[in-house]
Design a protein that fits this description.
alpha/beta, Rossmann fold
């Protein structure tokens, strides 16, 4: 790991997250939002990868130190997520990055996976300082983004075989975005399964699709954040 755990404040409450800086010392800022497992090693690796690409990358801990590799426990943690608290985590993370000495602009990108994918869109609707949002096969039944308030473009990556973010769910999401006038682009990868980006899960990981999404994500963030 190249980054470090740091504290940040939001509405009088202290939170933690994993921060990694680019070698240049500065760059556009990106928030990475965890899957339902928590702030695990894979998410920290993603933060490190974005830092290596020249971004100030940060993954806030939405579970306050809890993490698991057991699906049943992960599902319980996801369903127990306090949405009001998640709002404060998002706002605090954005404020920290906007104020950080390494961040040169007032716009922040956000990318999330599974639960985090839904939270990524939720964040873009919640805080106008978010200039670009990426959703990897996002799900969370209790997180409902207010797309009418979304000004940021959204990029979505989905799996062909996904019992969580199904083709019908993706189509419904597209309809919502169109109705709200949100700029978006979606890609569904043939033959892939939910969580195909997670290299710690060999049963579903798809290297080719994961790398393609990563290249597109880096270009997307550079396009929408570097000139902000």
């Amino acid at each position: 790991m190249n980054g470090t755990m740091v504290n940040f404040e939001s509405n009088g409450t202290s939170y933690q997250g994993y921060l990694a800086l680019p070698k240049s010392g500065s760059g556009p800022a990106v928030i990475v939002i965890q899957e339902w497992w928590g702030l695990v090693g894979h998410i920290k690796d993603v933060v490190d990868r974005y830092a290596a690409e020249g971004f100030v990358a940060f993954a806030p801990d939405f579970y306050h130190g809890k993490a698991t590799d057991e699906p049943d426990e992960a599902g319980s943690l996801m369903m127990a997520l306090n949405i009001a608290d998640a709002e404060q985590v998002i706002r605090g993370a954005v404020s920290m990055l906007v104020a950080h000495e390494s961040g040169p602009s007032d716009k922040v990108g956000v990318v999330g996976f599974c639960m985090g994918g839904q939270l990524s869109m939720f964040a873009a609707c919640l805080d106008q300082r978010i200039g670009a949002s990426i959703n990897y096969y996002g799900i969370h039944p209790h997180v409902q983004p207010d797309f009418a308030a979304c000004k940021a473009p959204i990029m979505g990556f989905f799996a062909e075989h996904d019992d969580y973010a199904s083709a019908s769910a993706v189509a419904a999401l597209e309809s919502q975005l169109k109705a709200a006038g949100v700029s978006y682009s979606f890609t569904t990868y043939p033959g892939t399964h939910h969580a195909f980006f997670n290299s710690d899960r060999p049963e579903v990981y798809d290297h080719e699709a994961a790398e393609d999404t990563y290249r597109k994500a880096v270009v997307f963030f550079r396009e929408h954040l570097e000139q902000a």
